[in-house]
Amino acid sequence: MPDQPASTRSPYQLDTAELLWKADNVPEADKYGDIYFSTQHGLDETRYVFLQHNQLQQRWQQLADGQQFHIGETGFGTGLNFLAAWQLWRQTAPLSAHLHFISVEKHPLRKQDLQRALTSWPELQDLADQLITTYPVLTPGHHLLPFDGGRVTLHLLLGEAIDGFEQLRRSNHPRWQTSTPHPIDAWFLDGFAPAKNPDLWHDKLYALLADLSGDGTTLATFTAVGDVRRGLIAHGFNMSKTKGFGMKRDMLVGQFDSQNRKPAPPPPRSSGTTAPWYFSPSKHITGKHIAIIGGGLAGTTSAYAMAQRGWRVSLIERSDQLAQGASGNPQGMLYTKLSHQTSTLNQFALSSYLYALRFYRYWQQQAANPAALLDLCGVLQLATSSNEQNKLTPLNHAFAHHPELMQCVSAEQASALAGIPLDFPGCFFPQAGWVAPRVLCNTLAAHPQIEVISQQQIHSLEVQNLSSDQTQWQLNDSNGKALLRADAVIIANSRDAIQFQQSCELPVKTIRGQITLLAASASSQTLKTVICHEGYITPAINGLHNLGATFDNGDSRIDIRQQDHLRNLQSLARSIPSLDISPTDNQSLDGRAALRCTSPDYLPMVGPVHQHALFLKHYAKLKKDAKTRLDQPGSYHPNLYINIGHGSRGLTSTPLCSELLAAMICGEPLPIPRTLVSALNPARFVIRDLIRNKH
């Protein structure tokens, strides 16, 4: 697709690769006039250039159990390099080791083109089929694709290479630009040839590669161009020529040595600097036992993410069963609200939704009884007001290239999709649906590395210093007695997080919600999708619809109220008048009430728990000048994390947020851009209050 003017193109649109197909099914990029792989022996060339000259077989055979290895690649293309590396990883690496393959791509292939290109390699077909099945919706940003039960993770960064790699830094503050929990171990530089694609091969990229490398990081590339060699040398890579593949005379190999890197110019002191408060020096964790407080969606998805990484997990729930709070409704909606604009909230909504779709498709395949767990039957969002209807045109423009993600539909089209007459247009999410939260929580907690400790409530947390660089947390019951000790803790108990001294300053908002369980009628039994309006209604399960939900800010009681049943019924009647479903006796209605937890900006609070008093002390200058230059890193409680504030969309947001926390704790590349990591950091509120002079 040709480039469009910035004023007309959607912010969610990528220019996918336009291909010319040569003999033997070899794709050529029309934009660059270059082929994706050799017309003969393309797989052999990949193995020679990138696998052999990064010494991957030898290095992987020497990995310790549980060790991580990180590959960075410029130009994902057909995924051939990834598949070849994945195949070799299976053959040589320890079963408990973890490969992170991080690749950028500005012009990704459409799925059908990817499938056609990869038919050239029958020996990779099993892996190629898995890649094609998991291939993401082609929207800009980070896409995390796990394979082999999490043993291999593809981080696919769609967009400009500089933008994608820059977001891998832990901070863009000059003091910590080169700080990373785990540097890239090997680089595959595989963009189109420098003469064909000069925008990729330049000094800014070489500097960024160096920032993300550590001493001993290797590099290989098919090119032998002198400007590339000299640019990489200037940034600390010891480069040399070696024999190229086949008829190609030369190629380049290298190894990073920070002592040889030219010093970067100091930043101007007068300019404001991106905040240092979201950066914290790593705290080394010697053990692998984590305690998670709260057995709802946030707690169980966190527990599963950590258990998958080999950690021993103690999941502590105050009730006698999991998912008894806000996560306890019989059916919950897997959906999101999209916008034609790209605010931080909208970027997070899309990222978490796309990840959740992959997460639940996996569990749909794994579940012994998928029908009891979920139904990805689609979700209709009705536009019941003129204001909502006015948003449909810009939404349709923004997502016109992604019908598999969202479709704007007329009232007639909505009626056909839902199986009942509807009077309003809206948006249809074909891959969404409903999930049974309790079933999900119990399924996740069945992992052999997870121990569920029920009917226990933690009242306080105490940190214990075991040595100069090692701490442990003691979790106490109501009598101050130690219930257990752990190397790390995740607080995931919703609004009750503020009972702990370490997190008591968080601005938690409580919102009461009540659902109504409504017997299906003759007119409602044909309902095929979840419908959202002022509230929502799900297709009937065991003869009952879930209808809801009320939204009462600040109400902390969970008694069942007949007036709230009536509110749910009235909302349904206004939005779907054709659905004759009102009961004859409102007093006999059943339902459930629970308390949602959210934040003032409606983003979850996910990340390390900050030390509130030290933030007030270290960043007090922000009260006088929000742009003042500060170099003090954030002060955080060691190995204490939080995962709360998901509101009514916990089914959508908790899988990605739990993966984010697990990556933080284990020192892995983070699954979302650094800007979103900062936007979720619970410390954002104390910083905002300082800037607004509220402290």
Describe what you observe in this structure.
By secondary structure, the chain is of the alpha/beta class. The chain contains 20 helices and 32 strands. It is globular and about 85 Å long. The protein starts with 18 loop residues before the first strand and ends with a helix.
How many strand elements?
Answer: 32
Shape: globular
| Unreliable parts | none
The share of residues in helices is 25-40%
Topology:
Layout: E1 19-22, E2 26-29, E3 34-35, H1 42-52, H2 56-61, E4 68-74, H3 80-92, E5 98-105, H4 111-117, H5 125-134, E6 141-147, E7 152-158, H6 161-166, E8 184-189, H7 203-211, E9 213-221, H8 226-234, E10 237-243, E11 250-256, E12 289-293, H9 297-307, E13 312-317, E14 332-334, H10 344-366, H11 370-373, E15 374-375, E16 379-382, H12 386-390, H13 392-398, E17 407-409, H14 411-418, E18 426-429, E19 433-435, H15 437-445, E20 450-454, E21 460-467, E22 470-476, E23 482-486, E24 488-491, E25 509-519, E26 530-532, E27 536-537, E28 544-548, E29 552-553, H16 562-575, E30 590-598, E31 605-610, H17 612-618, E32 636-644, H18 650-666, H19 674-680, H20 684-691
Helix pairs in contact: 1-3, 9-15, 9-18, 10-18
